[in-house]
Amino acid sequence: MRKVIVAPTAFKGTLGPSAVARALSAGVTTVWPEASVIELPLADGGNGTLESYRALRGGRLETLRVSGPLGARVSARLLRTKSDAVIESAEACGLHLVPPGQRDPLRASTFGVGELVLAGARGGSFDVILGLGGSATVDGGTGMARALGWRFLDARGRPLPEGGGALRDLAHIEPPARELEATALALCDVDNPLSGRLGAARVYGPQKGAGSDEVEALEAGLVRLAEVLESQHGLTPGDLPGAGAAGGLGFGARAFLGADLVSGAVWMIERAGLVESLAGAGLVITGEGRYDLQSGMGKVTGRVMEAARSALLPVLLVCGRIAGPIPPGVLPVDGGGRQLTANDLALLTGSGCRAIAGEDRL
Q1: Other Cβ atoms closer than 10 A to 251
Q2: Which residues are within 8 A (CB) of 329 and not within 5 positions of it... i.e. 6 or more apart?
Q3: DSSP per-residue string spanning 182-217
């Protein structure tokens, strides 16, 4: 084995994409010590986006204190390169910031994301790259917009409370006095629309703590937000793929920042030069914490496997848990649902490589 491409994403809650890539590489070299291993840590807009982009392009991390999903101040990072300010929305409004017993998607807000956007755009002609995913919110990006100066009012002209639960009473939207002086790009980790059967509330609301009645309240709020934006401002981004990402933050990024919505996985893979790196390779190794049906529907692990299969290369898939169908030409290695350490990943990868070399069976 002369050349191996290692292109994983984060194992959520345990290891970031760079640490995973190093662990997988260590497993490769136990079997093929002379192999050239190319590490391409990846993300799709969600967890690990800052780390992945910094590994590829460099830059300086800045830490700020911003409003968290339920209002308490949290530390959140942004990455500043020569021309870009890269923001991972989950740093400010992530589900990991709220203990399971305190999750409240009716009240959770993306206000802190707006604070990061303002900080990122400040101090020069920086383009804002906003990674979407892993949020505790279903507010359609209205919290972010409030931080930028937008106002959301009821029929009596009173500001609505923050969070998606109040949006059913939305009557007026007032734009800020001054627009943000930056271009924006939103990296979506899913392609769901804002509302409907596959929308932000009905698909992802339960994961954020919403019961059935709360899901319908959030759905009604997102529908109302789209109606008022269309009638008062002529904006209709609700059906765009990715509008439902991060609880409708994709919709808000388009409506309030003028951002283009793109697949985070495709965008990151292009910048990593994955397809070009496949030339002359004999194996591609990828992985994530949990591989399931959604992984093969536009997420980064599925995209890596698609690229490898298009190049007629075998794939080793290393995961903490595999709960979805595996494509042809992919050898899966399942960690059994355990929380895996870097050493565990190296051992699993070595086992998979030996099986591929014909020295062992999984």
Answers
A1: 33
A2: 308, 309, 314, 315
A3: S-EEEEES----SSSTTSHHHHHTGGGT--HHHHHH
Contacts of 360 (CB under 8 A, 6+ apart): 351, 354
* d(C-alpha 267, C-alpha 274), whole Å: 11
| Residues 17, 348, 301: CA angle, nearest 5 degrees | 40
The DSSP element (H or E) to which 55 belongs, if any, is: helix 49-57
HSE (side-chain half, CA atoms, 13 Å) at 125: 0
Both tokens of 334, joined, read 């399942």
pLDDT in tens, 263-316: 999 999 999 999 999 999 999 999 999 998 777 767 899 999 999 999 999 999
**H or E stretch at 310:** helix 300-310
> Cα separations (Å) of 215 from 12, 61, 201?
25, 36, 6
Residue whose pair of structure tokens reads 């190093």 in the numeric block: 22
d(CA 167, CA 148): 18
Per the DSSP assignment, residues forming a β-bridge with 66 are 74
pTM of the predicted protein model: 0.91
Classify strands 36-39 and 151-153 as parallel, antiparallel or unpaired: unpaired
Q: Which domains does the chain have, with CATH numbers?
A: 3-39+273-357 (3.40.50.10350), 49-265 (3.90.1510.10)
